[in-house]
Write a structure and sequence with these properties.
Chain lengths: 221, 412
């Protein structure tokens, strides 16, 4: 489902060149739940951004869902992200001016479909994460755990084949973290969604199928 | 999707009330200035009664006669208008009228200040005055130098109270005139139409006026349609080839101008005036309007950038979930259009109020600065241009924001 061959990422400024990732080779099977671990600054989020097509590798090859990502334009990248990928961020990134249901609808705005169909799908996604009673609330009216569940609903509303989660439990206490992990496992098992999760928490990492460890931009395990 | 954008735009406007106020204030003020200026220009130049036929009327308001060392510029004299403008072949009507001049006279022991203009019978055919009572004087009245006058209803009130003025007399500049017609007041901005007293040209007392090449008379040529303008101008140029120059003069610069061209000619060096001058004046006016629109636009661009930058997280999220740069430009443009429409509505209302106050303040006597459909459409066009200019750049810049940077907080 996800293949990286000799992927390298270098950040260049006028004076400094920073090697963020080097020689990354990764093969993640469909339906696999993989966690990525490593100290801060080791390149976990950079790698997740490359897989999520939010950033481009400096060198190497990336293949997603059997498609080689090469020379894609803004529109191609946007369409792929919209149809195949879902994102969950550590700090939720919900739009504060939109109600919960409107936040969840965001990915569907960039697809064809009626307003009613969008609303129905958003409600179903919220039901899936146990927040059907909070559809008309605004994000600031929810707890951190609830906000992350809304973010997960937003990530899955478009039924993506790959879910990328960047420290989804990082801003939550352990109980809420467990809840989020339960939801992710449910998605992985029941829907077969491939999940790549960045985490600092060994306990949550152990609940995944495989742990990829990074250190100073290199893959060490 | 657009409905969603509009909903979001309204919410964003409510959230940042101070930003919204500053933005709306900028839009509103710009549109007010531009719309008031447009309304005044429209009042000055658009064909409206009693100059409603000025769309097909050509004017001779200025003349420049010059030689190597001498030059005379100013208003043509009656002699010039009579010899070179009057009875121009192909014209529906031609007329001469004097500049209005201020005058004061006593009537029944009261001092009355007014303005007087001398003209002919054709003047009343070119201008469409609505006569409240009586009728205009005729060409025969002018030819015979009959002491008849048309006055405004405002002067009628001052002279005769509310009563009918027809047949009554008043004495101005030592001549006693009998009132034959009464018309509504005309704003001073209407050069050809404005006066408070109109009397026949041939009642003039001053010696030599009939043969002067420069003086105080203007010419009007009513064409059957604008398509006749080139032919009339050729005829006029042909007549000018026989212009009789006085000693030391060998060039004359005068033309049959549309009202705007006449305005442009009055602003320019009349010796150097040519067919490109009106275009230059138009470009200068446009540049001034652009300057008016550019400064607040820059301000709004900067406010919009700050406003959008605050929402970099949202931009990042939208990009992550499939928004293309194009879709984001669309979203921010919709937001800006919503903002501009709201600001434009306030601006329009304020412009109407200011124009009404200007009219009531009587700064320009009898001028009525109203907002008609044309002004409204100008306003809509100005708002659209303003909205597009101030919205496109921030939208384009934000749409290009790298998604990772956007999610981090907006540093590009």
């Amino acid at each position: 489902m996800i293949k990286l061959n000799n992927v390298e990422k270098v950040y260049r400024t006028d004076r400094v060149e920073t090697l963020a990732l080097q020689n990354i080779n990764l093969d993640i099977a469909p339906g696999e739940f993989v966690s990525m671990m490593g100290p801060s600054g080791c390149g976990k989020s950079t790698l997740l951004n490359l897989i999520g097509l939010l950033d481009a590798p400096t060198a190497g090859e990336l293949e997603l869902d059997r498609q080689k990502v090469r020379g894609w334009r803004d529109g191609d990248l946007a369409r792929f992200r919209n149809e195949k990928l879902g994102f969950v961020f550590q700090s939720f990134h919900l739009v504060p001016d939109l109600k919960v249901v409107d936040n969840v609808e965001i990915p569907l705005l960039y697809r064809k479909g009626s307003t009613a169909a969008r609303r129905k799908a958003a409600r179903e996604a919220l039901d899936r994460v146990g927040l059907s009673s909070r559809v008309t609330h605004f994000p600031t009216q929810l707890s951190g755990g609830q906000q992350q569940r809304v973010a997960i609903a937003r990530a899955i509303v478009g039924k993506p084949r790959i879910l990328l989660a960047d420290e989804p439990t990082g801003n939550l206490d352990s109980a809420m973290g467990e809840e989020i992990m339960d939801i992710l496992h449910d998605l992985n098992k029941k829907d077969g969604t491939t999940i790549v999760m960045v985490t600092h928490d060994e306990r949550f990492a152990r609940r995944t199928d495989r742990i990829v460890r990074l250190f100073d931009g290199r893959q060490v395990a | 999707m657009i409905g969603n954008y509009i909903k979001l735009a309204l919410k964003v406007l409510q959230r940042r009330k101070f930003f919204t106020f500053i933005s709306l204030f900028g839009i509103c003020l710009t549109l007010v200035v531009l719309m008031v200026a447009t309304a005044i220009l429209d009042n000055l130049f658009s064909p409206r009664a009693p100059e409603s036929r000025f769309g097909r009327t050509l004017c001779v308001y200025t003349i420049a006669i010059f030689g190597d060392s001498y030059s005379t510029t100013g208003t043509p004299g009656y002699g010039f208008v009579n010899e070179y403008v009057r009875n121009l072949p192909g014209a529906e009507a031609t007329s001469a009228f004097s500049n209005f001049s201020g005058t004061a006279f006593f009537h029944q022991g009261r001092k009355i200040e007014s303005n007087i203009k001398r003209t002919d019978g054709a003047y009343w055919k070119i201008l469409d005055f609505h006569f409240l009572e009586g009728a205009p004087f005729t060409q025969e009245d002018d030819d015979r130098g009959n002491f008849v006058a048309v006055i405004t209803s405002d002067l009628r009130r001052k002279l005769f109270g509310g009563a009918s003025a027809i047949g009554k007399t008043f004495t101005v500049e030592g001549q006693t005139f009998r009132v034959v017609g009464v018309v509504p007041p005309v704003p001073i901005t209407r050069i050809a139409a404005f006066s408070e007293i109109w009397v026949p040209i041939h009642t003039q007392k001053r010696a030599g006026w009939a043969t002067q090449m420069t003086g105080e008379y203007n010419g009007l040529v009513l064409a059957r349609s604008t398509a006749d303008f080139p032919r009339l101008r050729r005829e006029f140029a042909q007549r000018l080839t026989h212009f009789r120059f006085e000693k030391n003069y060998d060039h004359v610069n005068v033309g049959l101008d549309t009202p705007f061209e006449a305005f442009a000619r009055s602003l320019s060096d009349q010796r150097k005036y040519n067919t490109q001058t009106p275009l230059r004046v138009k470009l200068i006016l446009l540049a001034i309007a652009l300057l008016f629109i550019t400064l607040p636009t820059m301000n709004l661009v900067s406010i919009n950038l700050s406003r959008i930058l605050e929402r970099s997280s949202e931009i990042g999220v939208r990009k992550a979930f499939g928004a293309s740069s194009r879709a984001l430009v669309g979203q921010f443009l919709v937001e800006n259009v919503v903002l501009t429409i709201i600001g434009g509505a306030f601006g329009f209302a304020l412009a109407v109020a200011i124009l009404s106050a200007l009219t009531n303040a009587d700064l320009i006597p009898y001028a009525v600065f109203d907002v008609n459909l044309r002004i409204f459409l100008y306003g809509v066009a100005i708002a659209a241009v303003f909205g597009a200019i101030s919205g496109v750049y921030p939208a384009w810049r934000m749409s290009r924001m790298h998604p990772v940077n956007a999610l981090r907080g907006g540093v590009q």
